[in-house]
Each structure stands twice: as C-alpha cells, then as structure tokens.
C-alpha cells in the first residue's frame, strides 16, 4: 500500500551507535482530552500517512489500544516491524529493583511487540503521582534526585539492552548538572534525551550539550502544547503559535503556525514528536518536513523568539521542603537537593 507521504523522504537522525530514527514522529499522550481509542485511531492513520516514529509511554494509558493498531498494521502488511521506530518509557512508580523489567514487559505485551526501539526513563526520580493529579497535589514520599537511585534504574535499562528487549535507551526531563553526574557512570550511554523544546522554549544550552555529547535531542510539546490540561497552564505562559514573528512566517509559507514550529525543530536538528488526532493536522505535520524549508533568515528570526517559557514544570513531582518547580530543573547549575 502506498503512503501518503513517502517515509524515505523524511529526514533521518543517526545515533552515535549507527542506529537511525526518523527526524519527526508522532506523540501519543491523549491526556484528559483524547481517549485511548481516539489516539490509537490517529496512530493507524499516521502509519498510512507515512509516520514511522511513535512516542509512547506506559503512563499514557493507551499502549494496549495502540498495540492493536501495530499488530493490525503488521498482520495486514501495511508496514513491517523493522520499518517502525517505537519508543516507550518507564513511569516513576517502576524505578525499583526488578520493576524496570516488569514495566518493559508490560509495555511489550500491551504494544504487542517483541522489542522496543528506544526505552526511556521518563523522569529522573521515582516521584509518583496518579494520572490526572492536580497541579497542587504532592506525594509525601517524593524525594529530590538521587544519583545512586537513578543509576540503579539505568543499570536495569542497560540490562534490557543486553537481553535484547530494547535496542536503545534514553533519558527524559534531564538537566546538564544531572547529565554531568550520570554520563561518566553509564555503561551504555543514552542515544537520545527527550526534553521540552519549542520556539518559546529552546533550551539552547541543554540542546548544545546533547549535540556535543552525540546524544540526539527529541523535542516534546513542539507546538507549545496548546491543548495541555489547565493544571499545566500558568498565567505567564506564552502561546508559541500566536507569537507575531512566527505568525508572520506562517503567512509567508501559507501554513498554520504549528507547521512552522515543526519546520524550525527539524531544521534545527531535534526530532519533534507533535501530537494530533486530526488527519489534516498530522498529515501536514509530516509533509512539512519534506517541502518548502524555512530560509536561514527565518531560522534566525525564530531563534530570537525564545522566551525561556517552560510549560511542563513538573510541580506535582516536588518533595517536601522544595521551594518551587524551579528546584526540579537545577537552574543554579548544581543538582538541587
Ligand atoms: N517525555 C515527557 O515527559 C513528555 C512530556 C510531554 C509530552 N511528551 C510527548 O510529546 C508529545 C507532544 O506533546 P503535546 O501533545 O503536549 O504537545 P504538542 O504536540 O506541542 O501540541 C499538540 C496539539 O497541537 C495542536 N496541533 C497539532 N498539529 C497541528 C497543526 N498542524 N495545526 C494546528 N494545530 C495543531 C493539536 O491541537 P488540536 O487537537 O486542538 O487541533 C494538538 O492537540 C506528547 O503526545 C507525548 O508523546 C513527552
């Protein structure tokens, strides 16, 4: 069956170990707004459109339904397993000894796969909150980042590679101070770091740190997550797709501003993983990577609209005694304890 957009034309990224991954993928976090059925239907449509990278996670609560879509696509020979690049993540309540394997086994069973292409530690600490927890909710058991505990989780990820259950491993929601402590201790270095990246939150230092260490940056919330739940919104947040410079560039290219966020991301070098259940949107999100690139001048203009506006602040993961969400992100250059 022919794809709407030829996956072979889509930019690819090559990890330090030689493995390749598409330069754009589809997010699958339906959050409170979209059911597992809506998200999995979009995944089915996205495979037909030509997407080959899907960003899943145990905590998104929809791997079972997405797995049905993958199985159907393989059974009907719409796509071969080796043509898809599928990621998933271990959630914060499964960092303990033996739990990472259990989490991976559950994701494999739900996704109906016999290996994962890229397995992430979703957050660098085991601070659990139930799905949908309000922004002010705190778990009294939450603790600051602990290097030994994190390395215990990472060692389990390394063993998943040894066992052949996952091909590559990565980290998410990291900071430079944490990476400085972690990377020298890794037997298997992360191939990718998933982090929030959009024009109003470019994280230039962390982005460059990843490039310098041959780690592929993967950008979540690439459009500025306009549909994120209210608990993840604060009054000072800026909407990327309404920033005048970006809107102006969108007009020049005759596309929605969302598409400009994605062109910028792919041309800059990260791998964006936009989410949408709407066919017209996810198709144009993929198509924009193979046509009508931004000019160098437009890329320069977009560089200037960074407002250091972190959207996913992670306040529900804070521990007793923490001052505020900034403590999660080591803003003074040292790991906050
Ligand atoms: N590692 C982590 O901790 C982490 C954290 C957050 C997210 N993620 C991953 O990143 C993915 C993406 O993040 P996200 O879903 O929060 O944000 P996003 O991709 O920045 O924004 C998604 C929203 O943008 C709108 N949109 C998408 N394409 C569009 C287009 N072409 N034109 C107009 N509007 C468009 C859609 O809204 P409408 O439905 O209203 O059209 C959609 O719901 C997630 O699904 C998840 O896989 C990972």
UniProtKB/TrEMBL annotation:
Active site: 60 (proton donor)
Gene3D superfamilies documented for this protein: NADP-dependent oxidoreductase domain
Binding site for substrate: 122
InterPro entries per UniProt: AKR (IPR020471), Aldo/ket_reductase_CS (IPR018170), NAD(P)_OxRdtase_dom_sf (IPR036812), NADP_OxRdtase_dom (IPR023210)
Limits of the NADP-dependent oxidoreductase domain: 23-306
GO molecular function list: oxidoreductase activity
Residues annotated as site: Lowers pKa of active site Tyr: 89
Pfam families in UniProt: Aldo_ket_red
Record's protein name: Alcohol dehydrogenase (NADP+)
Lineage, highest ranks first: Bacteria, Bacillati, Bacillota, Clostridia, Lachnospirales
